[in-house]
Write the structure tokens for this entry.
Amino acid sequence: MNPLLRPAILAGALVAASAVLAQSAAPAKVADTSKGKALVDAKGMTLYTFDRDTAGKPACNGQCAQNWPPLMAAGGAAASGDWSVVTRDDGAKQWAYKGKPLYLWVKDTKPGEVTGDGVNNVWHVATP
């Protein structure tokens, strides 16, 4: 094998391995908040569930989704364990935990804030 090709082949293998790991990693993690343990996104922002979602189908669309942005899933995202991917009305993919679609709240401005918990008695901090 040409010794000049080895670094390029190794780099390609590392990129491919990174892509596989990125797709299989959980889309959220657990953090401590003033409400106890909660699921948070990669930036540490609290995730929420919506009581009006049914059977893994997101009910928060349009203006609702402006205030409660969905935790979007990349095109190649795949279900793993308690994590699943649900399809929104517009065809986009959203992460769900134990069948419940996950959302952020626009009024949470710092990691760990939980100001969306209890809004209209239908929004709740997503818990592990």
